[in-house]
Amino acid sequence: PEDNGDLVVRASDGSIPPRVLVSSPYSDIWPYWSRNGDWLTYATFPELHGLENKTGGDIWYIALTGDRIPKPFIQEATDEIMPVLSPDSRYLAYVSWRSGRQEIYVRSFPDGRNRIQISNNGGSNPCWVDGNLFYLEEGTESPRLMVVQTGTRSGFRAEKPQALFNYKNAGISIPRRVGLGGGRYFLPYTY
Asked: Judging by beta carbons within 10 Å of its beta carbon (0-12, 13-18, 19+), is residue 169 exposed, middle or buried?
């Protein structure tokens, strides 16, 4: 994201001039490219620029293989942030405050139907790895890194969240894409 909130594409080698993908009066944050390169999802946050919006933070997307016109994905009365697409781009995980605290939800993409709540004790920083959904559970005295086994072949299926480990008194940052695959995962961990 640029300082003014625009989302800009730049060639890593500088060979092509920067190109604005999204320009709005709001801050466009948490951009996420689909693995197949067909989609870009992001959240808009008017409050970061002192602007008001009836729906707060919202999630938008752009089809990068078509008209490239930004379209709203979720616009509700509460904030929705941190969108991440499943590896097959059929589902989008995100954070919402609709329950009164931040929780992880999944919806079908790009139609936005079938909202499923994944976390039930607070959640942030969703991330897909090998078809599993990771997130940070923050609603307990001792926060934990959680994993949810998922399936997407015939509709979305999510197992009960499982705790991997506590991270009290330590900082964990889950990048937008993480892992080595094959059941082994790499997570940055600071003391």
From this structure: exposed
The predicted-structure confidence for 93-149, as pLDDT tens digits, reads as follows 999 999 999 999 999 999 999 999 999 899 988 988 878 888 887 766 677 888 899
The DSSP string of 129-188 is: ETTEEEEEE-SSSS-EEEEEEEE-BTB-EE---EEEEE-TTSEE---SS---BTTB----
Nearest CA among 60, 64, 49, 83 for reference residue 19: 64
Contact, 187 vs 146, CB < 8 A?
Answer: no
Omega before 87 cis (within 30°)? no
CA–CA distance, 104 with 139 (Å, rounded to integer): 12
Sign of the alpha-carbon dihedral angle for 70, 75, 81, 85: negative
DSSP type of residue 20: E
Question: Which tokens in the block code for residue 37?
Answer: 């390169």
**Residue 64 to residue 32: CA distance in whole angstroms:** 12
**What's the CA dihedral at 118, 124, 128, 129 to 10 degrees?**
-110
